Every structure is written in structure tokens, then in C-alpha cells.
Amino acid sequence: TVSFYEGEPLKALSTLAYSDIYHLQLSAATAFSEISEMDTRPVTREALEPILYLLHSPHINVQHGASAAMGNLAVNVENKLLIVRMGGLEPLIRQMLSPNIDAQINSVGCITNLATAEENKMVIAKSGALLPLTRLARSRDLRVQRNAAGALLNMTHSAEHRQQLIGAGAVPVLVELLASDDSELQYYATTALSNIAVDDSGRQLLWDTQPVLVDALIRFIDTSTIKVQCQAILTLRNLASDDQYQIQIVEKGGLESLLPLLQSEYDPLVISASACLRNLSIHPDNEKHILDSGILPCLVHLITESGNEEVQCHVISALRNLVANNDADKSMFAESGLFDHMKAVLLSPDASDAVVGEMVAALNVFVLDESLWPYIIDDGFLELLIPLTRSPLVELQYNACVTISSLAGKASEASDRLIQVWDRPDGGLQSYLALFLAVDEGMDPVLRSVALWTVLLLLESDSPDLIQLVTSHPSIIKNIDKIAAIGSLPEGELRNSAYTSDSLAGLRSSRTFDGDGFGGDSENPDDDADIYNRMINIAQDVVSLVHTLEI
User: Fold this and answer.
1) pTM, to two decimals
2) Between the CA of residue 15 and those of 21, 27, 28, 298, 412, what are the distances in Å?
């Protein structure tokens, strides 16, 4: 196969390109345009030089052919980088400013392709291309609009470039494009706005300057193509990272538009809708709206019916938010079959670590609710949590331990269930406590503190049988005596923990620490010495309580 990018064919085309005769240059530009439509291989500097030269021609038809060739070659990654390195942006920007529509289409299309290479984006941002791109996104020609909007989208994939786009005035133009009837423009605009909404500053700018944005996005959910629907929902999800948008989206009817999509057979729609609902569920004022919508049974069934990991994680996170938002009776969650579905997932060998992690984090919240904890302890979740205390996943391990601790706080009402799991499964509760209380320098002080707190709660129960199991264990109390005898950590000596004091905020039971305990605010939340000394204090509390019980 003959290559026109090297040897005699390239030499012949170059001779035409470098001549001062218009029709010869036009022949070269046309040839390069047609050849590059079929052959987009990586080319050398020698092959690009005559095309770049033609871009500088005073004749619009020559420019048109050269920019078409450049755009075709810019499909190739190596060519994208070489074009920019050789100064191809300047003539392309000049063509964007041309009143000729074909020149605009080709030059903007080429820059759109160039902007897909990460290495080029900063050069493009600093080249002055963003202002004409923003202007051309308002062109009356749909082809120019599409290319310009695509280029703007390609420049929204990093925070720095998003700020430069904002500075170029792209935000109001992108919002204007939402009113277009063209689905491609709708897609480019919603996706670009979704990326801008990732940043705190971007969301605040949208809130301050674009009051129609949420209405437009909700309209897309109800009426647009599936890919625009998905992007509109994801934009709402990103906006709903802020309280003000969480409220506004629900007030403007976004919830009613989202809920039917949770029952779609198209996974991307369900993923997008469940992700948005998760963020909307964060705000306490939205809880009643969500529950009154009747969507609870659908959410619960998605836990097991959806085979998609992302959907499962989003749904269980939304349910966790709804339970955590206030102290009202939550028995409807249990009556909807929530715990049956959760247990089915936790028992499944196919459940992913991410889904199991979300489940246990949710249990850590559910167990704090007075109307829900009895279901958790009666439905056999202790048997599922105990093996997870040995999980290699730090967050999962922590949440399993804290949930067990919270259930230990109910020992007076549920001593029979705690006694049943004392030595099973996997060695049971006693094995977990003995392992975490062994005097071992490798044990994380936070995890050890949770185990100590669990023992303290068990001893505070009014169950003689349970107290006897703890105090008669061959190592638990002996090791706690040793921990208590260590004393406080000397000033300046730190023991590293995988957690901070903030991570202990979830440690709750029927009795909680005061301001100096896990639930309180610390002036130095990341202070390892503070965590370590608290561990010693709990151990000393246990020792004192054991002495009292012996008396």
C-alpha cells in the first residue's frame, strides 16, 4: 500500500503545498483531506509541516482542506500531541474566528479532537481558544454548535480546566444549550455541567447564577433520550452534594421524576437514579417526602433484585440516611422486609466487598434506632457480624466491631441472644474479644477500645449468666488488667492508628461517652496519644467494675 505521508508521494504533495499558486495549494489541501479520511496512522513532523503551512493560507478553501486533514489525523493519539507541539493551535484558532461556516466546523472539530489528550488541555486553555469556543457554542449552525460544545466538554475533566472555562464565560452558554431540541447538544451540555458541579465552587456559581438549571434537568428526566436522561440525573446528583440543591430538587418535583426510573430495566438509568436519591436522602427535610412517595418497598427489593453492585450500594446508603435523619419510629423499614433482604445479601457468596461494607455500615446506623435494633439481634445478624471482625478490610472490620458493641449495650434486654453467640460461630463473641484484647503491639488501639467498651457494656448488664461468661474467661479480664496497668501514653510517644477520633463518632449504645469520650468533640481529633489514652481509661473502668462485681 502506498503511503502519502512519506517518500516520493509526500515530496510531491509538499511541492504543491509550498508553491505560491492557489490551485496547486488547493489540490494539495484536498489530497491531504481525502487521504487522511482513509489513513489516520501516526505521522512524522515532515508529513505535518506542509499541512500546517496550508493552514496559514490566505485562501479559505485551502484552509478548509488543511483543517479537515488535521482534524482527521487528530483522531490518532500520537498525532494529537504532535499537532499541538508543532504549533497547530494558532492557525486553528484563527480559523475559528473566520465568518466561513465550513472553516469553523473543521477548526472546532479538530480542536475537539485535540482536547481529548490530557497533555494538550493546558496548552489549549492557555492558547486563547476557550473564548471563541464559547462564542461558537452559540452559533446558528448546528454542526458548529455541536463541535464547540464537544470541545468545551472535553475541557471539563479537571478542576483547573473547569475554572478556566468558568472564567471564559462557558457556564451560561452551557445552560442555554439545555434549551436546544438537539439531543447531542443536550448531552454535551448536561455532561459538561455535571463535571462543573463536581467542584464546590462550581456548584455555588451555578446556584448563584443559574436559577433555571434544576428545572431544565428535571425536564430532561421526563422527556429526553436515555443517554441525556442519565447525564441529567448525574448532574442533579452532583448538585445534590449541597444542602440547598437537595431541598430545591425535591421542591421542584425531581423526586417524582426519579422514582419511576428505579424500576427501569436499563441499568445505567437505575444507577443514576439511585445515586441521585442517595444524595437527596441526606437532607432530613427530604425524608418525609421520600417515604410518603411509597418508594420504600422498591428500594428494599433493589437490595437483592438488582444485580448491579453500584445500585445496591446507593440504595442501602439511601436507606441508611433515611433511618439516621431523625428519631421518629422506623418500624416501617423492618416491616418492608429490609432485614430479610440485607441478610440474604450478607449470606450470599457472590456479594462483593463493597456491598457487604455498605451493609455493615448501614447496620451500624440501624442498630442505634430503638425500633430497629430488636430485629437486628433477633434475625441472627450477630452470627454474621462476628466473622467480619477478622476482615482484612479496615472499615468493614471497624463497622462490624462497633455494631456488635452497640448490640452489647442492649445486653439487659437481649442477654439470651448474646449468650447464644458467646462461642459460635467462628469461636463466637468470646473469641473476637480475646483476640482484640490480647496484649499485642500490633493491635490497633481504636479496635481494642471498641472491644474494651463491648466488655464494659456486657458487664453492666443485669444478666448474671452473661457476666459470668465474661469474668470467667481465661484471658479476657486478665489482659484487660494488663492494658489498664500500662498507664497513659508518655507525651510525645504516638501509636499509629488506622482511625481518628472522628471515626469513633459511630460508637454508640444505650450509654454513650460524654464530651471526653468517643462521641464527643476533640480539639485534636487526629491525636494518636489521645486515642491511646482513652483506651487505657476504658480498660481501667472495666477493672474497677470487675472489682465492684466481686465485692
Assistant:
1) 0.85
2) 11, 11, 9, 70, 95
* Cα–Cα distance measured from residue 475 to residue 541, given in angstroms and rounded to the nearest whole number: 17
CB burial of residue 48 (10 Å; 0-12, 13-18, 19+): buried
> Cβ distance 458 to 541 under 8 Å?
no
Nearest residue to 391 (alpha-carbon basis) of 432, 442, 342:
432
Q: Which residues contact 497 (CB under 8 A, 6 or more apart)?
A: 444, 445, 446, 528, 531, 532
Are residues 234 and 194 in contact, defined by beta-carbon separation less than 8 angstroms?
A: yes
Give me the phi and psi of 423, to 5 degrees please: -125, 15
Phi, psi for residue 61 in degrees, rounded to 5:
-65, -35
CA distance 113 to 122: 14
Per residue in 411-449, pLDDT (tens digit) is: 999 999 999 999 999 899 999 999 999 987 678 899 999
Question: What are the distances in angstroms from CA 364 to CA 228, 313, 317, 359?
Answer: 37, 15, 12, 9
Mean pLDDT, all residues of the chain: 90
| Nearby residues of 517 by Cβ (< 8 Å), 6 or more positions away | 534
Residues 6+ away with beta carbon under 8 Å from 24: 16
